[in-house]
């Protein structure tokens, strides 16, 4: 059974990736209900946190039923990362995670996220500073390297382990790749083969089916898998993967009633946490994913994303349930 410091995890845990504008408490709630073993907050700007910016501070909200949960930080200034680690520690998560993988320009061009892959000594110093700033286990999420010429993840893994991180998640792409092309897990597998490495190594990238989860588990020997895009609008994915790993058979996918009920739970949590206006608006990005591959869904989607009240949305969801229950029958 893998452990992250004192945090116990089940055999071959499935982790929910920290995704900006996705991995908020309402989304995490439905993923936890459907089998996510370890989750992370959306990434939080160290500068925003130490300046008490409302958006950054709100992302510190965590709930008991989410445990174990990590708060993920990013930044380019070592002292700011130290202070933000102290602030995050006071929110009582189970661990602190550092983002060295985010490829987007707004982050990387400011010297944070994946940009640190171009300055390994600074990455090591920043990580050591965070490790020393908290009593919690510190983990890291990163990529293979900045580009094809600098796939330095094997050196990074050893150096970060040596200064005290307790687990490493590796996305199988370079920063230059962004999210294009196929994720290459070959180097992730090589890190698992390295006899010097004794911390859990989690793989991330392109796990979009239970079959692929099993194949990559066996081929690369990782301690667990981090799941991102496959779970958006489809939290059932975690339990479907677990069932397949255990039995080699597929769970039946959710029917329309289950889709509607989980979507309603997600909406209700969103309204509670963000308030009636923002909770309604920010939920709009999820509807298409909850009802993906349902034929002739466009008129309902338009109603969901243009409704100005939660009552309207709930009425539309009931209409969807009744309309498509007949189709399934």
CATH top level of the largest domain is Alpha Beta
How far is the first residue's CA from the last residue's CA? 43 Å
Could you name the CATH topology of the largest domain? Answer: TIM Barrel
Radius of gyration: 20 Å
* Mean pLDDT over the full residue set: 93
User: Segments where pLDDT lies below 50 for 5+ residues?
Assistant: none
How many H/I helical runs? 14
**CATH architectural type of the largest domain:** Alpha-Beta Barrel
Content of β-strand: 5-15%
Notes on the structure:
The chain is of the alpha/beta class and 329 residues long. It has 2 domains: 3-247, TIM Barrel (Alpha-Beta Barrel); 256-328, Non-ribosomal Peptide Synthetase Peptidyl Carrier Protein, Chain A, CATH 1.10.1200. The protein has helices spanning 25-33, 46-50, 54-58, 78-90, 105-108, 120-133, 153-162, 186-193, 210-220, 237-247, 256-274, 276-290, 298-306, 310-328, and strands at residues 3-4, 7-8, 14-16, 38-40, 44-45, 69-74, 95-100, 138-143, 167-171, 201-204, 224-227. It has an 8-stranded parallel beta barrel, surrounded by 5 helices. Helix 7 links the parallel strand 8 (138-143) and strand 9. Helix 1 runs antiparallel to helix 11 (256-274). The longest helix is centred in the C-terminal third of the chain and has 19 residues, at 256-274. It is globular. The N and C termini lie far apart (43 Å).
